[in-house]
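In this section we walk through a basic example: taking a raw amino acid sequence and producing a predicted 3D structure, encoded as discrete structure tokens. The instruction is simple. Fold the sequence below.
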Amino acid sequence: MAADTSAIIDTDTPLFSGLSVAIITSRQLSLENAQDLSKDITTNGGECTIVDTVPARIEGDIRRYTHIISRTSDFPDYNAALDAFIHVIKPAWVEFCMHKRKLTNPRAYNPDPALILSEVTICCGDLPEGDKEAIMGGVIAMGGQYTSALSKLVTHLIALTLDDDKCELALRKGLKCQIVLPHWFDDCLKLGKKISERPYKLPDPEILSVSANSRRIAPASNADITGAISPIGGGIPSPKSSPAPNSRSLSVFNGRKVMLATDMNLTEHLRTIIEGLIRQGGGEITNNVDEATTYVCLYRSGEDYQIASWKGKEVGNLSWLYYLITHNTWTSPMRRLMHYPIPTKPIPGFESYIISLSNYTGEARIYLESLVKAAGAQFTKTMKSDNTHLITAHKGSEKCDAAKEWNINIVNHLWLEESYAKYEMQSLTIPRYTTFPPRTNLGEVVGKTEIDKAALERHFYKKVVEPRKVPRLSRAKITDDEDVKPASKNRGNTPIADKGKNRANTPTADKVKNMANTPTVDRVKKTRHGTPLRTPAATRLIDEKENEIPPSGGRSAKTRAMSLLHDMADDMTKYEKESKRVGGVVYGGRKASDPDRVGNDKERAKGKKRTSDAMDIDKEEHFKEPQKKAKKSRPSDAMDTDEDEKVKQPHKSAKKSRLPSGKPPILHRLMLSGYQPWVNNLKQESTDTAKLRDLGILVTNNPKDVTLLCAPKIVRTKKFVAALAAAPTLVSTSFIEHCLAENEIPDVEDHPFEDTEGEETYIFGLEESRQRALQNKGHLLRGWQIFCSENVKGGFDTYKDIIEANGGVCTLYRGKNTLKVSKRTINEPGGLAPSGDHSQNQGDDEGDVLYLLSDPDKAADKKMWPSFREVAKKADMVPRIVKTDWLLFVAMSQQMYWEPKYEIKG
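The resulting token sequence is shown next.
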């Protein structure tokens, strides 16, 4: 690198003039490379110090440095550097500055593992402008870089086909960038992890190949869990850096005093060996936690654990200690979940869970087994119908098929890891936990989650309470029965105390023991803000939660976080604008025929094909009910608005009040079905959706949130049928046309939904259906378990969503007779529904009938009918195999209705 600096040296002011840089060596950054970097920096006017000790601690005042170069954030002084506003950067920053001949923003080169795209430079091909802007905001927010011009610095070129001009240029110039579909970027952001590009690479991406999707997904190797698969470690370790097999050459314990807790129950022989290794590695052994710099224990409990944690000492378990010995390299015990002591009590809620694994192999499987047990759940190698969760790396296995039939929750390992890291059960509704990118084995991103230090403080630390900086007029005494509130986060080894107090004045173990009787006042707890850089995909996948951001794994100081957020303001504003477009970041860049294009809500999370109105369930078959035609009436004049906001519709000329984000309050949550201007016109849909949101109308695909339902006529689509359960006000498409043309929200009564022909065809009245829906409150099918074949017209997921929108449970049926059945009774309307929480429109419910939605024209379905009848018989119920028309009429009319013509005989 030094040879490339000749053109820079001749400038008036050297490039790195005024910079003082420390270079941290590690396994990822050798001493030789560090010396090359040092030469480049000093030749161009900077000062440089190489830290080549193990552990790599910076001697003296860290604040004398302006930059610290490291390939990883996993070194002892990382948090101290952030607290001191020192830039921690990767070596690539030096090379990039020399290439540009100017100092560039170091933020993109931060080694924080939470910035999943920190080494990525993205260029987009011929994609819609809105998609390009959204991708730019997303990649910058996640630590990467975006460029509009193709150059040798680009690592990823995003395009739809190789016919793109930039793709042709990249191939002609032989650039070493990976050409991938936009699906890759989108899936990375949905997961919050950087996954392999292999299935997304052009010209023949596996995710679009039918034959590839039928092949087994190969297990992935992962170095992040090596040496961290169990909290108790394995056998006695041997240092890898030893010059001879029997040598015990260590330096990782230099200057450290280690205390081994008694809760590990080490034998005298093993303890002697471990203590000998520590001493030979330059460390000392102590039995006094106040003197120790490192505390090793098994559980997050006990007085010594509290003191060590409160004083900011290194607290790890035996597995972590073995890792240090084996690799002779320091690593934070919070970097890997199984390197930190385990809780003594289960994560609240996990004690009742029975969890099994699928598609994880080798160390990843052992690691997840240990994590399940450490979380307090029961682990089973084989899966049975009483399992509550299945954790899988992808959905291609018999266990996954069985889990669908048994209604067992199917999640990826991120749900388990993040629940354990936060010591709090994470919601299964977060799309990140149920995302399974096609042709990807998620075993490749196992072990990348870190312990959440803020969660430890909330749940496990009992720190000394500091007085507020106010006159000491009176102090509330803390009794022995009260918990001491946590104080501010302390990242260094110095205990938190009032300014002016030094280390000598900090409490000892004896003082902590008497802490409960010490008069003091409550201190306002300060929590870590960090830089919450989350995957933009979460904002696209979680229903109408604007700019919701997952927590970062970093532990930076609040002030540094505010500085970083200020630097990112423009990027985040741009991203926030684009992320709210229907379909998200890469929506418009995908073909309508792409089965894995990301949609909204459940369609989007499941990777279903998405168009403005995805599918008309029945285009030819119509209801011909003998029932008397219901009287048609106009939609109610009352306007349904969001229950949380309770905002009334303003007058046309009234000025709109705006939220702190700059957007008006949400007046309507609108669902459209069959709106022709948006069909196969994704760019127009994106533009119109943004205009509507600026007026106060949020376009949603969640049927439970709908207040306005807009369609050109009555259509038997999933959206329309499912939305009726929410009793929305129906409006004509002229309502939307007026909003877009006049840039104002008209009165809904001026745009009534009228379809006399449709009501005659389907033999039900819309207003009567709406009134019943108001009575049902989404519980028409509460307590109902309806089985459904996967061969039915429209697909299983379509009817599953309709049933769930009405409060029921839809179970996939594949011919097995070992399924659980929930039985209803006539005496208890709604079956399993609590009293007062059931539908009032259950007139034709016979109580003991078990329904199966099936297709009479499919031979595969006919083979399953005998086994279904056996299932019903075992449950003491009457089997009834029906056409999907039955469910559609029930959902559209919002009443339970039965007629023999719906039943399939055979």
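Looking at the output, two observations stand out. The longest helix spans residues 859-874. The mean pLDDT is 76. In the next section we compare this with other chains.
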